[in-house]
Amino acid sequence: MTPDVAAGAQGTAVEGLLAGNAGLLFVIGVGLTSLAVLLFLLLLLSRRQQRRDLREVVLAVESLRTGRAARPAELDPRSPFVVLADAVNRLGQELTARGAEAEGRREGLRALEDVAHDLALMTTDGDFDIRSLSAGAAVLLGWDEDEVLGRPASMVFDEAAWKDLLPKLGRKSLREHGVEARSVLLRRDGTKFHGSVKVRLRGGPVGEARGYLIVVKNVDAEVRLEEELRGSEARYRALVEGIPEAVVVLRGGKIAFLNPVMAAMLGGRPESLVGARLRDLVATRDVMVLEEHLSRLERCRPGERQDLHVTLVPADGRGGPDVKLSLATAIVDGEPAVVGAASDETVARRLGAELRENESRLDAVLEATTDGVVSLADLPGGSVVRMTNRAFLDLFGLREAQVLGATEPELLRLLRERGQGAEDVAAFLARAARGTRR
To answer: How far is CA 145 from its chain centroid?
Structure first.
């Protein structure tokens, strides 16, 4: 083969190889271009799906913002936004439940406003300008809601009463517990009434106060009753302090009130004895009896009575009077109490002791004498034997049980049955005048 022919063959082979490589490169280029186009199309589709998913989530959030029924966000489980959609859906469900609960409370409040016509409910802003008025407030105050919206709450209060209430509204206790007070309020027609006023803070965003809730209840009837009760108590105290008997009022065994007569028995002034325990002002031997009576009475209904005898021991420790203490349960100043009336029996007890001593001496004299003695006393039912001695019984052969307490006819019969000497005594007694006989 000549060199020219060999060179030509080699050139032909190279051209064939180049042609084959060019075809391969074309195929590779077309493939890469198709892949790029496919990736681009997939990217466009993915972005479009993401936009649809985002739009679905935005619509769900927008439904929550507008307060309409929660619209759930429905996404493909493979979407990268499915976690966000689930969170929005759970938030919607929780807000729906809370909204239903709040609506139930609002319905309850509206029902309360409809039936509680003796209650006035007002809401105000932070400056105490009225923002709402309940139906009960319109009835109680005479104002319609449209007439008072935006006006200061002070317009429904007496001027002096509002000035008294203002300092309480500035205290820390308003934020923690609210304020409760008695106040005087004004109706639209200018008439006044007493009201029980309660003021509470209304919470706002992030714990901020956004206004106040004011609740007013008409308590005119209670105020009148309290005034009548105070007047009655004043008259009662004046009466008790003016009577000559000693009177004491006890609560829990302690002196709540006593008049000057009782204070004098206890050796002190009324104001210094209030609060003292009565058990500390009686003799030691009487403490248990007094405690037992007081404990029993404190469990009884008003009107129960008990009497006991005690010896008072004044605060200075000197001997006090012997008294009869009549105790009774009662309602004093609107609360249960035990009222006691004390009567001084010191003189009566002393006279009784002297009488018993004299009787003992007389009994001794009668028993010592040899003369027979019998004594009759006149009673409404006739004369009866009150006293005799051993000599009289032995003289006529009688027993003490037969004679003591016997009526005059019975005594005469017994004597006549005993013979001549006894008959003479019976005849003497029959002729004697009525009264004590010897």
So the answer is: 35
